[in-house]
Amino acid sequence: MERKGNIDFGGKFLKDLYPQFLGIKLLKVENGRAEVEMEVKKEHLNLFGITHGGVIFSLADTALGLASNSSEISSVALNVHINFIRATREGEVLRAEAVEVKRTRKTGIYSVKIFDSQNNLVALATGTCYILSDKK
Fold first, then answer.
1. pLDDT > 90 in the chain, percent
2. Looking at domain 9-135, does it have CATH number 3.10.129.10?
């Protein structure tokens, strides 16, 4: 795991209990970028036996939050949109990669791609974040 400046992403990530509950693991955080992954468990499936959309959204949102907070200034999501492209099942390892597309003084726009273990695109999300004025 990489970090920028003196921000301890590993420590902060471990305090965020929801991703821990889902089994999301932090792989990398760089300036404007983040990568996380998780293994799909039985508890993550919907009534059709495929990965619940909320689980995939949570994986994307976690990557978005890390990427948008990879600088010295905090930000929060204003809007996130996701397209589900491919179904996945129990045992699959999903990886989300968030990348900053544009950052202004007050907002940031991010693209998040979710891949399966064969590098197939599972979902594509975009998010807009509001940049807070206080430093971390």
1. 82
2. yes
pLDDT band, residue 136 (cuts 50/70/90): low
User: What pLDDT, in 10s, does the model give residues 96-107?
Assistant: 999 999 999 999
- What pTM, to 2 d.p., does this model score? 0.91
What phi and psi, each to the nearest 5 degrees, are found at residue 60? Answer: -65, -45
- Going 133 to 134 to 135 to 136, the CA torsion angle's sign is negative
Amino acid at 46: N
Kindly compute the dihedral angle of the four CA atoms of residues 54, 13, 17, 84, in this order, to the nearest 10 degrees. 0
Q: What is the pLDDT of residue 6?
A: 45
CA 35/CA 2 separation, integer angstroms = 10
- Burial of residue 83, with CB atoms counted within 10 A of its CB: 0-12 exposed, 13-18 middle, 19 or more buried: exposed
Contact 33, 70 (CB under 8 A): yes
Side chain identity, residue 39: E
Contact 26, 65 (CB under 8 A): no
Run of H or E including 77: strand 73-84
